[in-house]
User: Which sequence fits this backbone?
């Protein structure tokens, strides 16, 4: 049956996307198909080298897929899309410009669509000098200026590559607060990669787990959690037969496991919901076993005749 989602409900869709940086090189993204709905805050997680930055670069139009198609809001991606803002992992900025000049550059590049107050708060202007050159800033300060450019743009889709990676605790809280207030005000979609799952679980409602270039889990976090359970019971792991087992280990005289239940669970088993961190870690530890991509991908637009 065709999926009911229309392409306008989807912020980012990947259809059979493969990416190789060299013609005969390995596939950094390997036949990926998934979608991320509009209006969600999506955590993009995976081990080092899983392909997270590559995916974000493609969504921003900075890299092209070797095969397949990437769409934002139902249209093929392109660089400089007015509805898309991208915070790259290496925070590219002009080192000789001052902070104030950089923000003026952002305002000029996004004329008529620039939130100067938000950009100034994101850049933490009250705390460090607007006349400081970008090249003289610390890594964390540069991140805040780069974030200011992304947030100031009033984009409908924010692609943020490890936005908190080099921020101190106070800065993380401030930036998360600004980001969440912005999302609440505007309904923008955010896709942000991070390795700190505990930090994401408070703010994200959607999840995409990449592992070796493949989407392993993708969907609404509550739905994904509801489909899994941590079970503890007496006896060995053979009692899990018939369920999808992401992870199991001996626990005292019994067994504890994170499973996707495919049949009613026996009486006497202790059952609880997994945390997001448990689900992601178990999913990454069981490549191929746990694949569950809940987000439907709408059909491609008919080409105009
Ligand atoms: N420009 C490039 N040329 C060649 N290989 C690349 C390029 N960019 C990324 N790669 C390779 O693609 C793979 C995935 O890299 P990517 O940066 O997308 O992973 P990641 O999940 O973002 O990793 P991390 O968590 O370490 O940032 C890596 O093996 C990397 O070496």
Assistant:
């Amino acid at each position: 049956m065709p999926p009911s989602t229309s392409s306008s409900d989807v912020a980012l869709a990947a259809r059979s996307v493969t990416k190789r940086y060299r013609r005969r090189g390995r596939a950094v993204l390997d036949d990926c198909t998934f979608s991320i709905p509009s209006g969600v805050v999506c955590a993009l997680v995976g081990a080092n080298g899983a392909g997270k930055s590559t995916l974000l670069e493609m969504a921003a139009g900075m890299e092209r897929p070797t095969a397949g198609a990437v769409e934002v809001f139902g249209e093929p991606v392109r660089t400089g899309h007015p509805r898309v803002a991208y915070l790259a992992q290496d925070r590219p900025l002009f080192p000789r410009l001052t902070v104030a000049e950089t923000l003026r550059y952002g305002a000029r590049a996004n004329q008529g669509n620039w939130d100067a107050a938000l950009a100034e708060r994101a850049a933490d202007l009250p705390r460090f000098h607007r006349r400081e050159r970008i090249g003289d800033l610390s890594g964390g300060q540069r991140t805040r200026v780069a974030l200011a450019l992304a947030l100031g743009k009033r984009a409908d889709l924010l692609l943020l590559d490890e936005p908190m990676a080099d921020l101190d605790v106070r800065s993380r809280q401030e930036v998360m607060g600004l980001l969440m207030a912005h999302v609440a005000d505007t309904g923008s979609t955010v896709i942000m990669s991070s390795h700190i799952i505990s930090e994401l679980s408070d703010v994200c409602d959607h999840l995409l787990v990449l592992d070796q270039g493949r989407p392993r889990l993708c969907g609404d976090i509550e739905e994904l959690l509801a489909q899994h359970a941590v079970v503890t019971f007496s006896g060995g792991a053979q009692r899990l037969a018939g369920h999808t087992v992401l992870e199991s280990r001996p626990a005292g005289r019994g067994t504890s496991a994170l499973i996707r239940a495919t049949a009613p669970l026996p009486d006497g088993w202790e059952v609880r919901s997994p945390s997001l961190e448990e689900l992601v870690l178990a999913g990454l530890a069981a490549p191929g076993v746990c694949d569950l991509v809940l987000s439907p991908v709408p059909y491609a637009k008919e080409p105009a005749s």
